[in-house]
Write a structure and sequence with these properties.
Blueprint: H1 5-11, H2 16-27, H3 36-52, H4 57-69, E1 107-112, E2 115-122, E3 125-128, E4 131-133, H5 136-144, H6 150-153
Antiparallel strand pairs: 1-2, 2-3, 3-4
């Protein structure tokens, strides 16, 4: 192959679309990026390796050894299409309850600003002052008027 040195200078004046075409000519694959700097570097590296002969035999053997033990590519080439698998049946959730909550029927009690706050734990939520809530945080917000972590407010956080 004739010397490609003149191509190095022309890369900086090419548009991204022209760089993508040049990349495809050299690598025989469409580039996955439209990043100009990345395209210029990849093309320049390929031109240099073609001009100077690429890797030495020793380097090529070392790369082969490393490739046997490493995951070489994290994404599939674009020309490979996978047949979609059947989606597994969704597993039924056993409970929507937060496992950090006490058992159903128990009460969470706290003194707050001189009054006794009692929240009853239900199967599908919490009850406070005749109202139902989905979380301790919602109860704490109703009590304080501001967002606060419910487990922290009721002193149920683990240390």
């Amino acid at each position: 192959m004739p010397t490609q040195t003149h191509d190095f200078e022309s890369l900086t004046t090419m548009t991204v679309d022209q760089l993508r075409v040049r990349y495809e000519e050299l690598w025989f694959d469409k580039p996955r990026s439209r990043n100009r700097t990345w395209l210029i570097r990849k093309i320049a590296w390929r031109l240099q390796s073609l001009e100077l002969g690429g890797l030495t035999d020793r380097a090529r053997q070392r790369a082969t050894t490393l490739a046997r033990t490493a995951e070489v590519r994290t994404t599939l080439p674009r020309h490979i299409t996978l047949v979609p698998r059947e989606k597994p049946a969704k597993l039924a959730k056993t409970s929507k309850r937060d496992p950090r909550l006490p058992c159903v029927g128990a009460s969470v009690v706290r003194e707050y600003q001189g009054r006794r706050i009692e929240v009853r734990v239900l199967e599908d939520g919490l009850e406070y002052d005749g109202q139902r809530f989905r979380s301790l945080t919602a109860v704490a917000k109703a009590i304080t008027g501001t967002h606060v972590n419910g487990f922290r407010f009721f002193h149920l956080e683990s240390e």
